[in-house]
Structure formats: structure tokens, C-alpha cells
Amino acid sequence: MTRKLSILAADDSEMNRRLLTRFITQLGHDIVLVNDGQAAVQYCQATRPDLILMDVMMPVMDGLEATRQIRSLLGEHWLPIIFLTAKADQEDVIQGLSAGGDDYLSKPIDITLLSAKINVMARIADMQLRIAQDAEQLEAYYRANEAEQELAKHVLSSLTVHAEQAATGVQEWIKPAVNFSGDVVAVERSPTGVAHIMLADSTGHGLSAAISCLPAVSAFHSMTQKGFAISAIAREINTQLHRSLPLGRFVAAILVAVDYAERIVSLWNGGLPAALLVDADGKLLRRFESQNAPLGILGNEDFDPGLAVYRWPETATLALFSDGLSEARNAQDKEFGEASMLQVLASVPAEQRMAAVRQAVAEHLDGREAHDDVSLVIIPCEQRQNSMPESAQADAAHTELADWEIRLSFGPRQLREDNCMPALLGWLHQINLNETQFGEVLLVMSELFNNALDHGVLKLSSLQKSAGEGFGQYMEERQRRLQALESGSIEIGMNYRVDAERALLRLWMKDSGEGFDFARQDMARLSDDGQQTHGRGLALVRRLCESVLFVGSGNQVEVEYALK
Predict the structure, then answer these.
(1) 387 is a domain residue
(2) What are phi and psi of 349, to 5 degrees?
(3) Counting beta carbons within 10 angstroms of the beta carbon of residue 152, is it exposed (0 to 12), middle (13 to 18) or buried (19 or more)?
């Protein structure tokens, strides 16, 4: 027997109601009796039975009209209705089914047939109930999933959309293949004002791909703010992803540092299409091809943090894009490709290049959907001062501080892994410099440290930068010597003192190199294109500091900065 049902019987005949009560009770179900169709409608307004046995011919409201109103009342909820009537010709059956009935049973009623029809309707009702419950569960799951998707979008947006994009002029375009993009763009400025940009493309599509990029984005922002170089950031992201991502998951990425003051772009490419640097006319200056495996594949011992470095001319544009863009196929199965990208970049002025590429890709696809996430980053490269991000440091009353001194020494490992400047930056954050002082002292410290490393420890000559391709050769040699460094050190000291008139911050730096003839040093030299190739850093230090003094063989420099 099926489960016990609540059955509503509508019939104007007292004898029929008695027979139905006896039959239904014998079948083990509960029965509710009404005399007409209107009473059946009113009962369904208050209570929902499991099944209705409906007479056709009744006073006040017949069974056909009652069935129509009950169907309208219940909406999408299905309730089985069986008509009971002495009229059983084809026209009557069709009329009853059209009114909303599910079956017909002729009078006099056969209890065996009635039992079978009730069992059939009960099974159908149970299936309908399960379907409705499943639909409710799916709807609840859909609503919960939508809420989770919105939360994920908010988190991803807060990590990837950054105010530094406006300050640097970087433009981005991301077109996801599904709801979420596995491509992300992050922009941040270092404490010295160098712009850092990352385009990352995670394996797969959707939310899982976007989540895979989160450790990369988080490390990129935090390490840039702490003063780490692009090479150190790439290494740390690779370590985190190698540890956290499952086998077969990785993140192809390009990390870029743009030094506007020096007109230098430094780039690490792991698994993405070649980044393209073009001049004002769109002529290709440099292709930065992928020289590395995507992030997360190799262990730390096998990871290569080496950068490609290039000094651009007066003005240039750097284009980064994912393989979803370069491999976007049209109706003829032709890829968009690098050649099309270069053609578009050369066809319009620099400020129109983002819009022109987007339009070209749309025309290439001609309404078709790309099979992969599409992303494009346009980076304007022009010579200007590196504008530093706003400092969180508050103005401080230095005259209230006691005198203090700090000393620190960096050996080969710290120099190779490029972890020195973040440590020095940590010092500055501890002494409550105001925003102007923080920026100027950081510039002084950076210039002196880079001079000590390049010319003292690594024994590089600035004269290498002067001729033709000299700058590129200089940077390649610098990386080679730095990676092979097994000995050498830089010692740094800083002290603070207050006299009767002013507060002074004294910084000294000593390297393990042989020094130089600082008395005869030519402080400035021009390259073939008329640009000053070296000496500008020391000139800046002299302008910002009260005094600059070389001692010993020239491998130690002492400066004093006045805290006005």
C-alpha cells in the first residue's frame, strides 16, 4: 500500500459520499467530504489535500469550474484530481481533462480500480514532491552560489583593482571566457616610485583559476610595498604557488618594473606570449620572450629570477597580453597573433592603442566567443620622475627622540637574493620620518646601496653604459656576476643626533670593493644618444644631503641629512 493520504471527495449525493467514505477508509486513507465545487475550492484555500475525487455535476459550482479554480489557486504545485461521473463518453472525458483533471472514473465506482488509480496518482504525486524539493534545493544552492560568487568577485576586485593604475597610466582589459577570469592584472608602486605591473594567467577558467592567482596577487602587492625587486617577488610567488597549488596547476605570468627616471624596463616572463615594446610610431623595439617556466612548477632551487632589461628611447609603449588574446580564432580558424597586434599598435597614436586592439580583436572574433580568457595591458613608458606612493608615515617631532645608532651587514646570500633594500626600508619605517623626509632618505639610501653593490662588490664600470648597446650588456653582466657572487659584503650604519640647532640623520655605507679615485671622479658622462649614463645618482645625493664624504680608498661614503 502507498503512504496514508488525505483525500478530498466532492459529491452532492449523500449515498455516493457514504460509499466513498467506506471505500477510502478500507484503503487506509483519510477522507474529507464536501457537497459542491465551491466548498472544494474553499477547502483547498485553507488546506492542501494529497488527492481530490471530484464529481462533475454538482449544485452551486460544478466540478469542472471547481477544478479550474483549484488549478489557478495552487499555481505550479500539482495536486492529482480524478473525476467521478456517470457521464463517460469521449467528449465528457476531453472536457474534464481540459479543465485540469488528471483521470476519469465512471460510476458506479469499482473499488479495485479506484485503489489502483489512487496508488498511481500517489506515486506521481510523490515524484512531483521530490522534484519540487530538488528544485528548491537547486534554487537554494543557486542563491548561495551567487552570493559566494559575488563575495569572490569583491575579494578579487579589492586585490587586483588598485589606485596605482591611475597614477601610472597603466590600462587593462580582461574578457573572461566564463563568469570568472583566470587572468588578473595588478599594479603597485614601490617606495622609490618604480611602477610594478603583473599580468598573471592561471591554468583553466572560472573561479578555481581566479583563486589560484590570489597568492600571486597578494605577494605582489605586499612585497612591492616593502621594497622588494621584481626578481625577488617572482621567486617568492613561485615558492608560494609551488607549495600551495596541486599538481598540474600553475600560473603563467609577466612581472614588470618601470623606472621612469632612468627609462628602464625590467621584465620577467614565465610562460606568457612575448611582451612587445614599441616606440612612438609603433616600431618594435624589443620582444621580451618567455625564458622561464610558469610560476609554481619549479622548486626554489631550480627557479631562475633573471630579468630582461631594456632602456627605452624618449617614449615607448609596452604591451602585455595572454595567450587567450594571441590565440583567439576567427571563423576561418585563424589566430589573432602577434603580427596583428604589432600592426594595430603601429596604426594609431599611443593614447588610442588600447581601444584599437580591443576593436581589432572584436572584429577578428566577429561575434564568436574566445575559447580562453582574453587580457591586455598597455603600459606607457616615458621619462619622468618616479612619483612615490603616498606614505603612511605621520609627521614626527624628532627633537624628542634620543640619540641612537643602527648597524647592519649584508653578505653574498642577501645580496644575491635582493633582500637588502626591504630591510633598509624597515629601518626607515621605524623612525617616523614625514612623507618628504621618508622619500628623500630612501632615494639617498637606494643610490648609495646600488653604487656600493654595482661598483664596489660586483666591480662593474659605469663606462660600459656609454656605447650603443652598452646598457643592455651592463645589465646582463650585472645579473651574471650577482648570481655567481660567493664573497663580498656591504656594511651600513645609521645614527641620529640632535644638536642645539637641528636634528641630523647620518648614514654611512662601506663595501668590500677596492674603492675608486673619488678625488678625480668624473661625475657625469653622456651616452651616444646624449643621455647621461652615470653620475646622476651621486649628484642627487649631493643635492639632498648636507654633506657627502668619501673616505679611505673610496669604498666608504658618509652622508648627513638634515631633518628640518
Answers:
(1) no
(2) -65, 160
(3) middle
User: Among 265, 260, 256, 258, which residue's Cα sits nearest to residue 286?
Assistant: 265
- How is residue 55 written as a grid cell? 464529481
Domain count, the chain: 3
Q: How far apart are CA 533 and CA 541, in angstroms?
A: 16
Task: Quote the CA–CA distance of 269 and 273 in Å, as a whole number.
Answer: 8
Are 504 and 547 found together in one domain?
yes
What is the helix (H) or strand (E) element at residue 125, kind and residue range? helix 111-160
| Cα separations in angstroms, 274 against 142, 256, 269, 294, 503 | 40, 13, 8, 13, 51
SS3 386: coil
- What single letter denotes the amino acid at residue 234? A
**Residues 10 and 55: beta-carbon distance below 8 Å:** yes
Clarify whether residues 294 and 191 are in a common domain: yes
List of the chain residues with pLDDT < 70 = 1-2, 88, 145-146, 148-166, 179, 205-206, 388, 390-402, 466-469, 500, 519-536, 564
Of all helices (H) and strands (E), which one includes residue 136? helix 111-160
* Residue 249: count of CB within 10 angstroms of its CB: 17
DSSP string, 479-548: HHHHHT--S--EEEEEEEEE-SS-EEEEEEEEESS----GGG----EE-TTS-EEESHHHHHHHHHSSEE
**Cα gap 556→478, rounded to integer Å:** 21
Question: In angstroms, what is the C-alpha Rg of the chain?
Answer: 39
**Residue 142 is assigned to a structural domain of this protein:** no
Q: Are residues 367 and 485 in the same domain?
A: no
Look up the CATH number of the domain holding residue 206. 3.60.40.10
CB atoms near residue 259 (< 10 Å):
19
Cα distance between residue 403 and residue 505, in whole Å? 10
Alpha carbon 259 to its chain centroid, in Å, reads 24
Indicate the SS3 state at residue 184: strand
Taken in order 310, 314, 320, 326, is the CA torsion positive or negative? negative
Cell of 307: 630579468
Residue where a domain stops, chosen among 348, 382, 416: 382
- The per-residue pLDDT for range 490-523, each reduced to its tens digit, is 999 988 877 767 788 899 999 998 887 776 654 4
Say if 341 falls within a structural domain. yes
Amino acid (1-letter code) at residue 374: V
CATH no. for residue 501? 3.30.565.10
**363 in Cβ contact with 310 (< 8 Å):** no
Domain that holds residue 67: 6-132
Give dist(CA 199, CA 13) in Å, integer: 81
Q: Does a structural domain hold residue 507?
A: yes
Q: What gap in Å lies between CA 350 and CA 356, rounded to an integer?
A: 10
**Residue 353: Cβ within 10 Å count:** 23
pTM (2 decimals)?
0.69
Q: Look at residues 383, 122, 437 and name the one whose alpha carbon lies nearest to residue 260.
A: 383
Indicate the helix (H) or strand (E) that contains 156: helix 111-160
